Amino acid sequence: MSRVGKYPVSVPSGVSVKITGPNLTVSGKLGESQLALRDNVEVTLDGNLVWVKPKDESKHARMMWGTTRALINNMVKGVSEGFTVNLEINGVGYRAAVEGSVLKLQLGYSHDINYPIPADVTMKCEKPTAITISGRDSQRVGQIAAEIRAFRGPEPYKGKGIKYQTETILRKEGKKK
């Protein structure tokens, strides 16, 4: 029994959900998202609630039950509120700036790193050491944040590099005499 799938997804005001054949479309103030539904789950719209049920008792149908419900919930949240990931940059001379549609990173290399900002995501640098990534797709926002963090991950001795704002770096002691 899925613990996630048995609860309905509530649709807030300002968000519309349409089920057309094998596709589910969610649209709101931040845009529109689509999901291709699996054959072994049944999705129904009842007022402002979206219910997901498995069509049979196979293992795969039960797995896709909770997964589909979570994907629909993330789509509804994404088009109404959006998702945000905050990154922090630590290190002397390390900084970031948004110039047009490019994120310019200076991370201690001999060259600057220019990361093109995708159209479905917005980035802001309120301070030179903070990057805010936001968008309507949770997976896309997280993937872009992981790619930017991978340019210079935090090191354990001084903590220099790019880290998530909520991340805690385990620090090591360094050389002893």
UniProtKB/TrEMBL annotation:
Entry keyword Ribosomal protein: yes
GO CC terms of this entry: cytosolic large ribosomal subunit
GO aspect biological process, one term: cytoplasmic translation
Record-linked InterPro entries: Ribosomal_uL6-like, Ribosomal_uL6-like_a/b-dom_sf, Ribosomal_uL6_a/b-dom, Ribosomal_uL6_bac-type, Ribosomal_uL6_CS
Single GO MF annotation: rRNA binding
Large ribosomal subunit protein uL6 alpha-beta domain: residues covered: 11-82, 91-164
Keyword set, alphabetical order: Ribonucleoprotein, Ribosomal protein, RNA-binding, rRNA-binding
Quaternary structure annotation from Swiss-Prot or TrEMBL: Part of the 50S ribosomal subunit.
Family designation: Belongs to the universal ribosomal protein uL6 family.
Function: This protein binds to the 23S rRNA, and is important in its secondary structure. It is located near the subunit interface in the base of the L7/L12 stalk, and near the tRNA binding site of the peptidyltransferase center.
HAMAP family noted in UniProt: Ribosomal_uL6_B
Protein name from the UniProt record: Large ribosomal subunit protein uL6
Organismal lineage: Bacteria, Pseudomonadati, Pseudomonadota, Alphaproteobacteria, Rhodospirillales
Protein encoded by which gene: rplF
